[in-house]
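Reopening this one. Same input as before:
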Amino acid sequence: MMVLKKSRFAGLLACLLLVGTGGCSSFMSHSGPDQGYYPGTRASAKIVTDSDSGWVMRPLAAIDLPFSAVLDTLLLPFDYYRSGRDKTGDSPRERVLRSEQQNHTSDSLSQAAPLVINTSPRHQQ
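Same output, byte for byte:
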């Protein structure tokens, strides 16, 4: 009887761990700029079908695919809300460029001293 309780606990723990780690592609794609509908599912499917993906990433993406599909379905109202926005303003590249313009980074870099690397061999004493 005790073995049955332990195996149920192990099975429940394994299921919780699997559900807890699922949907990673959906979480990552929703943390950035708007990428349309079902971005996590599309990202996982692309990894699974891409021949350049590594042998480790393909099975992980295949496991993640159904969980990302469920999470993307739950986040459809959020995606619909974000769909009318300008996508270029949210991109990381545009945010960096705006920050550099506000802080005049190019001006301060043009006045910086050039980096000099000494490649001569050290003198032995």
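So the earlier flakiness isn't reproducible anymore. For the record, Residues 4 and 67 are 28 Å apart (CA to CA).
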